[in-house]
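User: Hi! I'm working on a homework problem where we have to compare a predicted structure to a textbook description. Could you give me the structure for the chain below?
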Amino acid sequence: MSGYFTALSSAEVLAELAEHDPRIVLVSQDFGPIGSFTARFPERHFDVGISEENLIGVAAGLAHAGKVAFAIAMAPFVSMRGFEQIRDDCAYNRNNVKIIAPFAGLEAGPWGATHHAIEDLALLRSIPGMTVLSPADPNESFRMVRAAAAIDGPVYIRLGFLLPIDGYDAPFRVGEAVTMREGNDVTLMATGSSVSAALAAYDALKGTGVSARVLNVHTLKPIDRAAIERAARETGKIVTVEEHSILGGLGGAVAEIMAELGVGRLVRVGVRDVFCTEVAPYPELLHIHGLDAEGIVAAARGLLGETS
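Assistant: Happy to help. Predicted structure tokens:
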């Protein structure tokens, strides 16, 4: 499911929450009516058009007045154009603004590099007091929306192209990575849309006798340091996978912790330090940049061969 449709589907959760909490309001970026929320609470939905700085400012103002403000806007634009307002109006002032950001990563691939969000995790996790979330599938995103409403302070929910993961219904707890598969040889540590690719890589590696642990790191901040430490000590080898630059996102966060530990080896799978200038369908872009299962398997095998 595209991040956009996942965001629209979140309106069902928001409407349910709004039914019991009159403080909940919605501010959006030129998306028109937002599902049942607009239908049921039109006076609590504010569409400010294509003006991301203003969108965050309005949401922060509503939150400052006592509301719990959810803002829906495209990830590449709200994270960059609205960065100052997120930092100062939301985080610095501890305002309850919850940003739902579809079109994360390379989902908007055919529209070109201007529409890619491959820096947003690095930006948002650098802000003190921000909670940064990245669900692995649509149902987990809905659990995140519920959790975000209860968090005191600003929250960023990153929505890429999310495939439903069969049988995945683990409770969502902020800051606690979910072990999707057990393994002892290498850990595949993925976030967001990359979790499905990591699970496919697990199957491919298993077929060649490699035992891979797969972790869904759905919370980038606060990150699950204990899970990273266990993986580093127990498997000794970690491959991070993210639809984001290798600089400053999941790979950067894990590298920081492993450097402090002085344990284990790390390979970061993500967009290298480049713009993705290829105009291609989304799956093709993932393949070009090594973000599909094939690329993850190659990275894991390289790491195993390097350290064996």
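For your comparison, note the following. The longest strand covers residues 237-245. The longest helix spans residues 3-20. Good luck with the assignment!
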